[in-house]
Specification:
Helix content is 23%, strand content 23%. It is an alpha+beta fold. The strands form five sheets. Strands 1, 3, 7, 8, 10, 11, 14, 17, 18 and 23 form a ten-stranded mixed beta sheet that branches. The longest helix is centred in the C-terminal third of the chain and has 15 residues, at 483-497. Mean pLDDT is 83; it is low at 1-38, 139-144 and 445-449.
């Protein structure tokens, strides 16, 4: 783990003075009041209600924050710093700009609560009488976040894992639960950390059937339970279907919408452990999942918005990349939520819908912080519709200056050129939009032979002639009329992009996207206009598709064995 990230995490921990929507599990510990009696602003009457409402899910003994604010002596010693963090809007840790839009379950602090802390600090932070404390209405955990019944699944890693204290930041992925045998639909999920002091954030990923077969090999590559991971689980396709950061409530898709889980899928938990300032203990973070008993009226799907082609020059303090992504389908997208993702060089990320007379903002994180990434649900009635032909614009900005580089063994590393990738030294420009659409049945065939029927024999014959994997796969898939291409190529392109072929992948995506609307038809357009890009992609990606390559098996879900 880079020293840069350790430093960033230390700063976040030091400033983590007020985490949102925070609750106490009970009354605070009784402390001895100041010797000075006061009838003005006091800890118990004025400050503690604010801490209880906005902070004490994190800032309690044994919690993820570096100190407790439900203890008067400690709270007094951090009183000035707490107020400064709130007034500077570093805390509560809520990343999206309110000038863009508001979201469900926002973490915020009211003006009167800020004034209460200011009055307490101005009074020199006296204790007052413990009997004056009145718990605020929102000081208890929000039970309404999940359905009022037992979860269908309770999932944990196969065995406990203790974070590596030498790393300060340890990212670990665990497969949780068995292979899912039949179609089902996620209604809600809740994540409960085990080692509450070390678990910094958690993301629950749904791994699609085509990638699920890679899990044993990925898991075996790292000793112990689970595997080391950073920007994601290292498996594609994967979609974020739940998670946890301090102060969040459980995710509930409601009675009329769910996330489809296809047969053959698996669930993987990515846990970020931060061990700075304490000794980690064995952790088995718990995931509870509620399922719809029958197919819901609407399906939620996660669509990635990606710029694989980012190239961040060494020393560039403001490397800005903008990518237009068009709805090339025949149906409108109804967007009900968004999540943004970059790595440690990120400065700013936004997604807007191009529209007249004014663009519609989906999310704008003006000060990106890798340690506080999460998904954001739009308020009821504020979904964003993107009609066929309309465009979304993804923008990412990075700081790759000398001052923003990691320090290794006391020496700050020189800047280097950075491109797309999964590693800590790589970057991403990625956003996920959550789409809602009416429920549709899966194809009658449980397999995919109907999509790529006859492609395997064509591919085998083509390979016998010495043509590369990519060209054979594309040529043979195209004979089906395009459906097999749409099944086969996304997984190959995504895997290749994350393993050294980012610019070639993006160029191919751009060309294929343009061909979706070409009047000569997709197949004719791809042959006439995209072959140069196909050849460049082929030379980079084909070695990844050999039996020893990392992308081997990407065609399995489409019925093609490379």
């Amino acid at each position: 783990m880079t020293a840069l990230h350790s430093k960033a995490t230390a700063v976040v921990a030091a400033l983590c003075l007020l985490a949102t929507a925070c609750a106490t599990d009970g009354a605070p510990a009784t402390s001895t009041p100041d010797a000075t009696t006061t009838t003005g602003a006091t800890y118990y009457k004025t400050a503690l209600p604010v801490f209880a409402a906005r902070c004490n899910q994190c800032h309690t003994k044994g919690g993820p924050a570096p100190f407790a604010l439900d203890d008067y002596p400690t709270a007094k010693s951090f009183a000035v710093a707490s107020l400064a963090a709130v007034e500077a809007k570093r805390m509560p840790p809520w990343m999206p700009s309110s000038a863009c839009r508001h979201y469900a379950d926002e973490r915020s602090i009211a003006a009167e609560e800020v004034k209460a802390l200011k009055d307490w600090v101005a009074a020199k932070s006296p204790a007052g009488d413990p009997l004056d404390f009145k718990a605020p209405a929102n000081s208890q955990p929000k039970a309404q976040g999940v359905p009022n019944r037992n979860p269908e699944w309770k999932l944990q890693s196969p065995e406990p894992y203790t974070a590596d204290a030498k790393l300060n930041d340890d990212y670990r992925c665990f497969v949780v639960g068995p292979e899912i045998k039949q179609e089902t639909w996620i209604q809600a999920s809740r994540v409960t950390p085990g080692d509450t002091a070390s678990v910094h954030h958690v993301i629950l990923y749904l791994i699609g059937p085509s990638a699920a077969g890679h899990i044993p090999k990925t898991d075996a590559a790292t000793p112990g339970v689970g595997w080391t991971c950073f920007g994601g689980p290292g498996l594609n396709p994967a979609q974020n279907v739940g998670g946890w950061v301090p102060g969040t409530i459980p995710q509930n898709n409601g009675d009329f919408a769910g996330i489809r889980v296809a047969p053959g899928s698996r669930l993987v938990l990515q846990v970020h452990y931060n061990t700075l300032g304490h000794k980690p203990v064995a952790d088995q973070t718990l995931v509870e999942v509620w399922l719809h008993p029958t197919a819901p009226a609407n399906l939620l799907s996660i669509r990635p918005l990606v710029d694989f082609g980012i190239q961040i020059a060494a020393g560039d303090a403001n490397s800005v990349h903008s990518k237009e992504l068009e709805n090339n389908s025949t149906k409108p997208w109804t967007i009900v939520g968004v999540m943004a993702h970059m790595h440690q060089l990120g400065k700013q990320i936004s997604v807007v819908k191009k529209a007249a007379p004014k663009d519609v903002c989906l999310v704008d994180i003006e000060r990106w912080d890798f340690n506080w990434q999460q998904g954001y649900r739009f308020l009821p009635g504020e979904q964003v519709t993107v009609k066929p032909g309309e465009k979304l614009v993804l923008q990412c900005a990075y700081d790759n200056s000398a001052a923003h580089q990691p320090t290794v063994n006391g020496v700050q590393s020189p800047p280097k050129a950075v491109a797309w990738g999964e590693g800590t030294g790589d970057e991403m420009c990625l956003a996920y939009v959550t789409l809602m659409e009416p429920y549709t049945e899966l194809p009658i065939s449980a397999g995919t032979d109907a999509i790529c029927n006859g492609v395997q024999s064509c591919y085998d014959s083509c390979r016998t002639g010495g043509t590369s994997q990519v060209l054979c796969g594309l040529q043979c898939a195209a004979k089906t009329g395009g459906k097999c291409v749409g099944c086969l190529m996304p997984g190959i392109i995504t895997c290749a992009a994350q393993n050294g072929c980012s610019s070639q992948s993006q160029a191919l995506i751009d060309c294929f996207s343009a061909c979706e609307k070409d009047p000569v038809g997709f197949q004719n357009c791809a042959v006439s206009k995209c072959m140069a890009g196909v050849l460049q992609f082929d030379s980079c990606a084909s070695p990844l598709l050999t039996t020893t390559g990392i992308c081997y098996g990407e065609g399995a879900s489409c019925g093609v064995a490379f």
